[in-house]
Amino acid sequence: MIREYHNYSLLPHNTFGIDVTASRFIEYDTPNELYELISSSRIEEPYLHIGQGSNLLFVKDFEGTMLHSRIKSIDITDETTDSVGVRVGAGVRWDDFVLWCVENNWYGIENLSYIPGETGACAVQNIGAYGTEIKDFISNVETINFAGKKQTYSVEECKYAYRYSIFKELDRKDCFVTYVYFKLSKTPHYVLDYGTVREAVAKYPEVSLKIV
């Protein structure tokens, strides 16, 4: 369902806790709803698409349209004895997805726990921590642009580098991420040789996903 609010407080949508407002705030639950918003010209400029607001510092009210994805689905796309493919909605809180993987004993992104943000924004930013980057586990990223064109980018086409992706380039600024596809391992493999990680986990009798 599409939800539209006026003079909406952005306090829940920025990690600095700044109480400013957006003149229009629109949330959507599916890519089709986003396409409907675009095709019906309901997104008035200036506009800004936000996730959890962990990289935003508001200093005044936003006089424009603010968009927020609530695409919350997590679906298994393929599975073998060694690996699993997962499609994650852009609006899923990143740490919720990490916890879901840990609970399913799927390896790869456990070092990226406790990073604030939503999955779509994390794929744009190429988040990283403790020797792990999200790009190493992404297979594809699905988007819709401001013209309503749907496009799937392979991980190579995303041009990932340190805290960088193609979606930060000016000609891709109007791309809205809808889904991120991941490939995770079922085989235990931990990245412990960064900083004091190995020293920290050595305090426990054995290494596990939850400990890491």
UniProtKB/TrEMBL annotation:
PROSITE patterns: FAD_PCMH. It holds the Pfam family FAD_binding_4. Keywords: Oxidoreductase. Gene3D superfamilies: 3.30.465.10, Uridine Diphospho-n-acetylenolpyruvylglucosamine Reductase, domain 2. Its EC number is 1.3.1.98. One of its GO terms (biological process) is cell wall organization. SUPFAM superfamilies: FAD-binding/transporter-associated domain-like (SSF56176). InterPro entries: FAD-bd_PCMH, FAD-bd_PCMH-like_sf, FAD-bd_PCMH_sub1, FAD-bd_PCMH_sub2, MurB, Oxid_FAD_bind_N. GO terms for molecular function: FAD binding; UDP-N-acetylmuramate dehydrogenase activity. Residues 18-187 form the FAD-binding PCMH-type domain. GO terms for cellular component: cytosol. HAMAP family: MurB. This is UDP-N-acetylenolpyruvoylglucosamine reductase. It comes from termite gut metagenome.
